[in-house]
Amino acid sequence: MGGIDWGDAPTWVAGAFAAAAAYYARGTLRSQQKQIREQREFIAEQSATMALERAELSAAAEDRRTAQARQIRMRLQTAGGRDDGGGGRVGYDHWRVHVDNGSDSPIHDVHMRFGTAYVAMSATEQEAASLPNAGRRAPRVHLIGPRRTVTFESQRGTEAFVDNNRPNVYFTDDAGVRWHLDQDGKLEEHPQGQPE
Hints:
The protein is built from two helices and 13 strands; from the N terminus they run αββββββββββαβββ. By secondary structure, the protein is an alpha+beta fold.
């Protein structure tokens, strides 16, 4: 019985090179898999960062969009009433509402409603109250300038009528967005084409 034939030297050399090539191919494959995993992690981090930046930019854009509208204030007071017989007044019979434009830009198409059915009876620009005609304007005011105030008055009625018909103001900001501000100071965008 003879010994095991282990082959010739060229076969051994070829086998060694094949084993080395397989070893290096395996190492290269693992290295590429590691790089792909790191790239995926990097892309995921970048995506999360970009999502946060988009959210911040969107919030900043929304702040800019609503900045002027948030500077419009409505100050409410009841007025009128009846004579108490001793030279004083008792109760109230209408609303007097001051709309203050605290922004640096005008607001347009200002419309005051009391309840759902009544519009303002008059509007007076406070800065012109001492002028002839007392600075009175039409009840629907086309423009209130920056840092200006217009006072709207409702029709007269009983205290219950006044209490049940609270003021709401509608206006368009300088960017063309229509807004609704209610008696509680709640500001919301008013959809175009919806009745006021």
